[in-house]
Every structure is written in C-alpha cells, then in structure tokens.
Amino acid sequence: MKIDNGISEKDRKAIANGLNHLLADTYTLYLMTHNFHWNVKGPMFNTLHLMFETQYNELALAVDLIAERIRALGYPAPGTYSEFAQLSSIKEVKGQPKAEEMIKHLVHGQEAVTKTARSLFPTVDKASDEPTADLLTQRMQLHEKNAWMLRSLLEK
Fold this sequence. Notes:
Protein name: Dps family protein
Family: Belongs to the Dps family.
Organism: Peredibacter starrii
Domain Ferritin/DPS: 17-156
Number of domains: 1
GO molecular function: ferric iron binding; oxidoreductase activity, acting on metal ions
Structural class: mainly alpha
C-alpha cells in the first residue's frame, strides 16, 4: 500500500538510507560496548563494567527505534553483520585492548554516531520529517553525554 504521510518517496528513501548508516553505527557501537563490558579488567573494572552495561542496554533499545523508523518510512532495515560492516563508519576493534584504550574506542564510537545523526539533518529538515528529527536529536544528546562521561575517565 502506498505511503502518504506528506514526505515524498524520494525524500523518504534518502532519509531511510541515512538511517541505515545510523543503525549500522549504533549496532556496531553496541557490539563494541558489549564486548568491552565482558572483557574489561583492571583497577576501574567495576566502574567500567557497570557503565558499559548501561550503555549497551541503551544502544540495544536504540537500534530497535531506528529500525522501526526506517520501516515506518517504507523501507527494509538492514540486519546482518555484513550489511552493518558495509554501512558503519565505526571500525571493528581487534583483540582485547586495555581499559583505557577501550574508553578511547568508545569515545570515538559515540562521536561517530553523533556525526552520522547530525549529517542527516539537512535531508530531514528539507522533508519536514519531525519524527526523524526528534529521534536524531535524542540520539545526539545521549551520545554526546556518553562521550563526555567516557572522556572524563581519561583525565589525569
């Protein structure tokens, strides 16, 4: 059935394509954060273990919200590792880095998701797609806060 929500098919497709990248970045950050939660060790173990758990739980909810917005726009959401690897701007971390390196990777990941979300605004604004704009704003606020909190752990 044709979608008639006031957003042209061309704009819906462009927004969905952008959201595919946001979904891939978010899922990649989720996997990285969950991996680090499982494997962190050292003097900051408890603090980081709990912080990473809070963050990966929130990211798990976020991937659902993003995928559902893609579907509401009338397009399929990517959902495989290979699709996410192609679409994500976040590179996989090999091995088991030390806690401080984990934090640095996560800061970069949080910032990458923020940049991906921010890059969608011109298309979203042009189409007057307020639901997607709201989603993007909420994502950016959370990722900027998480990046700040993680960066704070690196200060001497």
